[in-house]
Amino acid sequence: MKFLHTSDWHLGQSLYGYDRCSEGADMLRQLAAIVADEQPDALVVAGDVFHTAMPSSRAQHTYVNGMLALHEACPAMSIVVIAGNHDSAARLAAYGSLWRLAGVTIAATAADAMAAVEVPGALIVPVAYRHPSTLRDTAAAAIAAARDRAGNRPVIAVAHQAISGADYKGHYRQPYFDDALSLAAAGLDGADYVALGHIHRPQPVAGSSDRACYCGSPLPVHFDEATYVHGVDIVTIDGAGAVPTVTRRPIAAPVPLLTVPDDPVAIDDAIEAMRALPNEPCYVRLNVATSERWLPGDAKTRAGDVAREAGIDDDGLPIKRFCEFAVTHTGATAAAPAAVTTSIASLTTMEPVEAARRFLEHKGMEPLSPDELAIFQSLNIDSNTHQ
Ligand SMILES: [Mn+2]
């Protein structure tokens, strides 16, 4: 049997205030064309359908029309959607009965995981996002129950979880994956294939012999995710225990996320590099080097001026969508403080005054004065109460 594996659509995302719904619609049209071409038995969506728990009406419109187009591209295909951590599972499932009419199963709860979806040649176990502490029991029980029914058919699990050993580079929230689990600790090791969502960089899970893969997001969600090719996985697996084959088809970003120029330059040169970009829709992050602590106060205004010169598109959005500066500090006098990664676990035991010191240092602000320090200490905050 053959299925398409996609995840992390993040429909309704606003990137630096710019609405991305038309890009989401474009992405879904590309996906529907691939479905029409491949005619798979199933399509799985491994969570983070929406970017927020309360998606806008426009984001919901994009979703409904996109899903119907996927269905119409291959009416016999089963579509299985799980809620991710960005989704409201209950909201996603609210129209679940209606979606059944289009061959779509929406999974939001542990009970939904137990109800494996029968598709031609396989059973699909849809494990909606769960807190890592409860994932194992839910997933392991659901996979075992499906295995009892599956006979010679493969059991395919769909889940939304960071798996340890994954490469988070290029995922914009990479410091937040300290709750990663092994496949076994996630209860997912009993499946013939695990179609994962959550990490936006496509990759097989190390040590899984390509039996567990992230398909990655179809579009870059942030500038740091624009450095690799996004797309959809096409998985073929013929029977329980069979070796799966995974191929990929690319999906093009309708509006590219550009960091310009390639190497950091002085602010004036960076602004000129933005002006020199072709007049086609793009998001812009300016790559700036400075020996000062701060960029000039008018830097953002000047970037905005270049954006205005470029005009607006049919959606009413600027063609050159200025987003932010990536600042590289040069020279010893104004060197940026070394990046310090603080884990949630260490925060629970860190003295509050130490957390404050690190925060100020990170922000490049003045350290606490002796008077402020005295006030802080007079509060007598017990760090253990924060656990
Ligand atoms: Mn995501």
Q: In words, what does this structure look like?
A:
By secondary structure, this protein is α/β, with parallel strands linked by helices. It folds into 3 domains: 2-250, 4-Layer Sandwich (Purple Acid Phosphatase, chain A, domain 2); 257-329; 344-386, no CATH class. Helices cover 30% and strands 22% of the residues. The chain is built from 11 helices and 17 strands. The protein has helices at 21-38, 57-73, 89-93, 96-100, 110-114, 132-150, 267-275, 299-310, 344-349, 352-362, 370-378; strands at residues 2-6, 14-15, 18-19, 42-46, 78-82, 104-107, 117-119, 122-126, 155-160, 193-197, 203-204, 212-214, 231-236, 245-250, 257-265, 282-290, 320-329. Strands 6-5-4-1-13-14 form a 6-stranded mixed β-sheet. A 6-stranded mixed β-sheet has the order 7-8-9-10-12-11. Strand 8, helix 6 and strand 9 (155-160) form a beta-alpha-beta unit. It is globular and about 70 Å long. It starts with a strand and ends in a 9-residue tail after the last helix. The structure holds manganese (II) ion. Residues 8, 48, 84, 86, 198, 200 line the site of manganese (II) ion.
Average pLDDT metric: 91
Largest sheet: 6 strands, mixed
Helix content: 25-40%
Work out the radius of gyration: 24 Å
Outline the low-pLDDT stretches. 383-387
Q: Which class best fits the helix and strand makeup?
A: alpha/beta
Number of domains: 3
Give the tally of β-strands.
17
**The top level CATH class name of the largest domain:** Alpha Beta
Q: What is the molecular shape? A: globular
At the fold tier of CATH, the topology name of the largest domain is: Purple Acid Phosphatase, chain A, domain 2
* Bound ions, cofactors and other small molecules, one mention each: manganese (II) ion
Distance between the termini: 48 Å
Second CATH tier, the architecture of the largest domain: 4-Layer Sandwich
